[in-house]
Design brief:
By secondary structure, the protein is mainly alpha-helical. It is built from 24 helices and 2 strands. The chain has a two-stranded antiparallel ribbon. α6 (96-108) packs antiparallel against α7 (114-129), α7 packs parallel to α9 (155-166) and α7 packs antiparallel against α11. It is globular, with a radius of gyration of 33 Å.
Length: 594
């Protein structure tokens, strides 16, 4: 019995951790307690293991180095998490989400399903600026859900759209989970961001496609905004004219700046065009020139600051100007400036943002410390070898491995959130993926898309909990129409999430089928066989510097030099006089040092 337990310590340890988590113990303490308990057991059973357990009491001395070394306390990559968290919370307090939802809702309002399109579009923008799922879902649930219910949207569809759009912060950079995945996989955060960008945008398009299909199949489930609700009036043509002017000015600035600034001229030209139209919109609104429609003014004034913040954060990272940590720091400063410009920056807002940032950062840090304790013991009982053999022996090779891993993560996402999955499961999967030759950035993005479903899974999806906390539980009177609005039930929220979970599963399949969506982060691959090497010819010499053939005269006249005798060593002028040979010592006598 002892031999069986000792030789199967790794699967027993992993199964006991799952039991601890299902019982409801905090994740960080479950990891640490499980690791320490099995460390003691492993040391006692080591003589019965036949060499499969490599644990001894002095190994505990490695824990302080694990805590304070480059994996936890001295990890520069993890510094990006508090910066991006602080930026997202300040932006959420600044009222940016309310302005965006109101303005984009007015822009898409005249078409059927316009409010749903606006929620998805704003969800993608908030994902690219805040990176915090809770802030996005709560903000859109508080602002958009009452408006959608007021104008007759289906409750399940409205709930699903809001919850799914909020989870885009999981996969669109600067996502917090992508930072953690890059750290656990040992890869660059910038590469992870670049690889995840296109899948995030494709997923956004899939959400909008679902809304389009539902607006055709069930038009009454998402009516257009009535005329009296469009307070900004019309003006789409004015917006198109402003867009054309911006593009023309950007191109003209690019042509003007190209000779002096080279590759940076396109970015500088676009910045000049956008800045010009933004200043014009503000002046038109303040001075009542009425060159633009009210809708155009509002769209430009509301949309450009978050887009500028996105460029400040992601653009500098992708261009190699800043690291993710530096990009997060600049984003935090930009968020403070935006909040101050709106007159919503106060000491109370900063205190709330700092408290929430400290809470989330501490949560991540404690989980990571617990994971280091668990991994110390798990590696000591050869758990990584057990997992690697288990996964690499799956039928189907690389494809079978990807299918099996994604099914495992999809199932565990019913019970664990993305931080727990990233710290517990990913370190076990990465060595097997690397051994199979799978690109770890692609593998990380694939897992990120899969972990996004952990926010949407009924009944434990956190996005569903966030929406449930702000959705009406009892009937209420609408403040504009005076009509009684029925509450949103938990069942409606859950059923509304199901189609979007299916869309996320489809996105996993698309990421596997079209890996170039992620692999573009490597840039253009150069085939060494296509490189043409050319050696320049020198006057008077044949290729490779050999003397001219057939005694040809060198260029410019003169006599051709005599062909050297290559059978003798080279001579560099008159030989120096030979030194007299030193006398041979008499080895029959002892040496003299006089």
């Amino acid at each position: 019995m002892m031999e069986f337990i000792a030789q199967n310590m790794a699967p027993i340890m992993f199964a006991s951790l799952i039991v601890f988590l299902l019982i409801g113990y905090p994740v960080a303490f479950s990891l640490a307690a499980n690791g320490l308990m099995f460390f003691f057991i492993g040391v006692l059973l080591s003589p019965y293991s036949g060499g499969s357990i490599n644990l001894a009491w002095p190994l505990l001395h490695a824990l302080p180095d694990n805590f304070y070394g480059s994996r936890v306390m001295s990890n520069d990559t993890l510094l990006a998490i508090p910066f991006f968290t602080f930026m997202g919370i300040v932006l959420e307090r600044s009222g940016m989400a309310e302005d965006l939802l109101d303005t984009i809702g007015q822009l898409f309002g005249p078409i059927r399903g316009g409010l749903a399109y606006a929620v998805i579009f704003v969800g993608a923008l908030l994902a690219a600026t805040t990176g915090v799922v809770a802030a996005s879902v709560i903000a859109m649930g508080l602002i958009s859900l009452p408006i959608m219910l007021r104008y007759g949207y289906d409750r399940r569809l409205a709930s699903g759209v809001i919850a799914a759009s909020g989870t885009l912060a999981q996969i669109i950079p600067p996502s917090l989970v992508l930072i953690v995945l890059a750290d656990q996989l040992g890869r660059s955060v910038g590469d992870m961001y670049a690889g995840a960008l296109i899948p995030g945008l494709v997923l956004t398009v899939l959400y909008m496609s679902y809304v389009l299909i539902m607006s055709i199949i069930r038009p009454n489930s998402m009516p257009a905004l009535p005329l009296e609700a469009r307070t900004l009036g019309h003006g789409v043509m004015s917006l198109l004219v402003a867009l054309v002017v911006t593009v023309a000015l950007s191109y003209a600035a690019y042509r003007y700046l190209a000779p002096a600034h080279g590759d940076n001229a396109d970015i500088l030209g676009a910045t000049a065009g956008v800045l010009f139209i933004y200043i014009v919109a503000i002046a038109d609104k303040r001075l009542n020139f009425n060159m633009m429609s009210r809708l155009t003014q509002q769209v430009i004034i509301v949309l450009i600051p978050p887009l500028a913040l996105i460029f400040l954060v992601l653009g500098t990272i992708f261009l190699g100007i800043a690291t993710p940590t530096e990009g997060g720091a600049m984003g935090s400063v930009g968020a403070l400036i935006m909040a101050a410009a709106k007159g919503r920056l106060s000491l109370d807002v900063v205190k709330q943002a700092l408290a929430s940032t400290t809470r989330l950062s501490s949560f991540v840090l404690f989980i990571l410390i617990g994971a280091r304790v668990f991994s110390l013991t798990f590696y000591g009982v050869n758990g990584h070898i057990w997992v690697e053999h288990l996964l690499t022996s799956l039928p189907g090779g690389e494809t079978g491995f990807l299918i099996g891993v994604n099914l495992l993560v999809f199932f565990l996402a019913f019970f664990l959130d993305f931080f727990e999955l990233a710290f517990i499961i990913v370190p076990l999967l990465a060595p097997a993926a690397d051994k199979l030759g799978i690109d770890l950035i692609w593998f990380g993005v694939l897992l990120g898309v899969n972990m996004q479903t952990s926010f949407m899974h009924p009944p434990f999806g956190f996005a569903l909990f966030y929406l449930r906390s702000v959705a009406a539980r009892v009937p209420y009177l609408d403040r504009l129409t005076g009509k009684q609005i029925a509450p949103v039930t938990t069942g409606q929220i859950y059923w509304g999430a199901v189609p979007f979970v299916c869309i996320q599963v489809i996105m996993i399949g698309l990421t596997i089928a079209f890996p170039q969506m992620v692999m573009h982060y490597k840039g253009t691959t150069v085939d060494p066989g296509t490189i043409d090497y050319q050696v320049p010819e020198m006057p008077g010499l044949s290729p490779l510097g050999t003397p001219p053939a057939d005694g040809a005269a060198p260029a410019g006249g003169g006599t051709a030099p005599a062909t050297p005798d290559l059978s003798q060593p080279p001579s560099f002028g008159d030989p120096a006089p030979a030194k007299p040979a030193a006398p041979q010592p008499d080895l029959s006598q002892p040496p003299s040092f006089n």
